[in-house]
Amino acid sequence: MGNDISSVLAGNSPDADASQAALQAAAHAEFAQAVLDGLTGQPRSLPSRFLYDERGSELFEEITKLDEYYPTRAETALLQSHGADIAEHVGDADTLVEFGSGSSRKTSLLIDALDGLDTYIPIDVSESYLTEAAEWLAPQHDDLTIKPLVGDFTRMEALPDTARGQKLGFFSGSTIGNLTRDEATAFLLNAAQLLGRDSTFLVGIDLKKSPDILIPAYDDAEGVSASFSLNLLTRINRELDGNFDLARFGHRAVYNEREGRIEIYLESLADQSVRVLGRDIAFAEGERIHTEYSHKYSVSEFQALAATAGWRGMKAWTGDEGLFSLHLLRLN
Ligand SMILES: C[S@@+](CC[C@H](N)C(=O)[O-])C[C@H]1O[C@@H](n2cnc3c(N)ncnc32)[C@H](O)[C@@H]1O
């Protein structure tokens, strides 16, 4: 049996085209509102999910290959070394649901390790990522039904009907670290609703470590992380009639020890005024726009957080270097 990658991505009838156009219009309106609210509010901020347009997704893939960016290598190594043990602890799983799936490269290792998986539902805000990933995965997993879903994983109300049987969730790349602790708890509570009783959930968590390792991972020598941040301004210029001068903003990555998180900002390098959707917005030199958090946890801190949302830690795997961890949670 060949695999099936039909999805909400495909518009192949007039009705589907119309609903696709309505979804795109709603997404554009949501982006416009979030940008105007975020740039005119105090402190200034832009939600990190908007970093992932087509170019942003390409730049993130470049980041994952940088020497300084250890999380992808460390998580891949854990999946390669412990895939069989993870599969044994998961037991039966019919449907794999991945939140913020990106390129799905690491997921392929998990799919290989699992026996009897029937359906894979990758969920991402980036349609270009989902299309590329499904096309890459399909030939390698011939009997797997792949059903990509474009959407915001923080606001998912239900899984599609194709999510049948026993479910395993996957949240890789420490993407949960982009959420504040309260948002992460709300996400885990919602994931419990979506995945249901007796489901399991594999979550990748970046561990606390020296800022000497953390900072370069988010501010590399080649400047790929800076291009990834600044691309958000390019996106605002293109989609919201903006006139940000990229040469007048800088990428800043700082480690907030008290909160245990990396904070990413775009910093104005001059007193200046920027126009977005016909609105003039003034920036003082040194003023920052917050674009992303990356919270770091110890193994026990994350297990305690998951427990507040009803998830019991079954087992955690950490590599020899102690850089990254994979947590298998179960909902009882
Ligand atoms: C840090 S990347 C990790 C990608 C992949 N899981 C990995 O480990 O390589 C975050 C991914 O989550 C997606 N994403 C970010 N915020 C999202 C949201 N609110 N809803 C759905 N997807 C989101 C991005 O498009 C991106 O693919």
Main traits of this protein?
binds S-adenosylmethionine; alpha/beta; 332 residues; single chain; 39% helix; 23% strand
Written overview of the protein:
The protein is globular. Helices cover 39% and strands 23% of the residues. With 332 residues, it is of the alpha/beta class. α2 runs antiparallel to α8 and α3 packs parallel to α4. The strands form three sheets. Strands 1, 2, 3, 4, 5, 6, 12 and 13 form an eight-stranded mixed sheet that branches. The model has no long low-confidence stretch (mean pLDDT 95). α6 links the parallel β5 and β6. The protein contains nine helices and 13 strands. The two termini are 34 Å apart. It binds S-adenosylmethionine. S-adenosylmethionine (SAM) binds next to α2 and β2.
As a whole number of angstroms, the C-alpha radius of gyration is 20 Å
Q: Report the β-strand fraction as a percent range.
A: 15-25%
Number of strands: 13
Q: In terms of per-residue confidence, which ranges show pLDDT below 50 for 5 or more consecutive residues?
A: none
Largest sheet: 8 strands, mixed
Order of helices and strands: HHHEHEHEEEHEHHEEEEEHEE
- List the ligand species: S-adenosylmethionine
Protein topology:
Layout: H1 14-40, H2 54-64, H3 70-90, E1 95-99, H4 105-113, E2 119-124, H5 127-137, E3 145-146, E4 149-150, E5 167-171, H6 181-195, E6 200-206, H7 211-218, H8 224-239, E7 249-256, E8 261-268, E9 272-276, E10 279-283, E11 288-295, H9 299-308, E12 311-318, E13 324-331
Parallel strand pairs: 1-2, 1-5, 2-3, 2-4, 5-6
Antiparallel strand pairs: 6-13, 7-8, 8-11, 9-10, 12-13
Helix pairs in contact: 2-8, 3-4
Bound molecules: S-adenosylmethionine.
S-adenosylmethionine (SAM) binds next to helix 2 and strand 2.
